[in-house]
Design brief:
about 300 residues, alpha/beta, DHBP synthase, ten-stranded mixed sheet, globular
Length: about 300
């Protein structure tokens, strides 16, 4: 069974030995491994049951380490680093030849992030290099935002989990690609909204992937085991159903089944979404109904996750 610990030195030694550690970040918990160790990287894909066509994000302790991984840092990328790192932003840049192509899924670009979570930063400094750290869950299931979620996902493993408390952002990072000869692209929405990113870039972001592969693009992702769907108007008959669960975005309605109101504040909602999905999924309900939040840039990341987590 997994072991939950607060011992950063022990976790760093575990990683240096080629083993895996689940580490906290401000977005979600990540399944960390030495990004220079091909065998360790392979263990990540195996434990997550993740296809090797899906690239990984390399996490760094400091932006100054980016040049160890990329062949060039364009001025726009440097501006984004200066503004948003440490933080929930991943940049896809041209990879150096010595970067493992198992990390990049065979692409000549690599995704980098400097997390803001103090536990992640302490572990990265103690480890001394880059760590791949995709979400610490089975492929396509709900991303974990607590150590307990990770332990639940990998209950049949001996995974070491660094406990850093509940994740404060709660949704995966925004991903921006800045590659030679191509327009800047937003490959995944996060809680850094598109307008803020464009203000720093000085130009619009393309929202089509342009053939690039990035984490979180599978049609079904972030999904509970319970059948889940979104709604604008609550289905009246289901409100009287004791084995139907509800997630509300402010203005909750009385229901026979369990309900959680995540509020109408986008940051509060995002921070609690995955935890609410874990809580309701554990109740073995017949159906989970999720009230659609408002439209708008502040909610784009939430809408993207709900689209992939539900049957609509």
């Amino acid at each position: 069974m997994p072991t939950i610990t607060h011992d950063i030195t022990h976790c760093a030694q575990h990683l240096q030995g080629g083993d895996l550690v689940a580490m906290p970040t401000e977005t979600v918990y990540g399944l960390a491994a030495d990004a220079r160790n091909g065998d360790a990287v392979a263990k990540v894909f195996q434990l997550k049951q993740r296809p090797d066509s899906n690239p990984l994000i390399v996490h760094l302790a400091d932006a100054s380490q980016a040049s160890d991984w990329v062949s060039q840092i364009p001025p726009q990328a440097q501006a984004l680093m200066d503004t948003f790192w440490p933080g929930p932003l991943t940049l896809v840049l041209p990879a150096r030849d010595d970067v493992l192509r198992s990390v990049t899924a065979g692409q000549d670009s690599v995704a980098l992030r400097v997390p803001a979570h103090p536990g992640a930063r302490a572990l990265l400094h103690a480890f001394g290099g880059g760590l791949v750290a995709p979400s610490a869950n089975r492929y396509m299931s709900i991303s974990p935002t607590s150590a307990a979620h990770v332990a639940q996902q990998f209950a049949d493993s001996e995974l070491l989990i660094l406990d850093g408390g509940a994740c404060q952002v709660g949704l995966e990072s925004s991903i921006v690609a800045l590659l030679p000869g191509d327009s800047p692209r937003l490959l995944r929405h996060g809680m850094l909204d598109q307008q803020r990113l464009q203000q720093v870039l000085g130009q619009a972001l393309e929202t089509r992937d342009g053939g690039l592969r990035a984490p979180g693009q599978h049609r079904r992702h972030y999904a509970p085991g319970t059948l889940a769907s979104t709604f604008i108007e609550a289905p009246e008959a289901a409100l009287d159903c004791a084995d139907c669960g509800w997630i509300w975005c402010g203005q909750p309605r009385p229901s026979q089944g369990p309900g959680i109101d995540l509020s109408a504040d986008p940051e509060h909602y995002a921070a609690g979404l995955y935890a609410a999905l874990y809580q309701l999924d554990a109740m073995h309900l017949r159906h989970l109904y999720i009230a659609l939040p408002p439209a708008g840039a502040a909610w784009a990341a939430v809408h993207e996750r709900l689209q992939r987590a539900t049957t609509q």
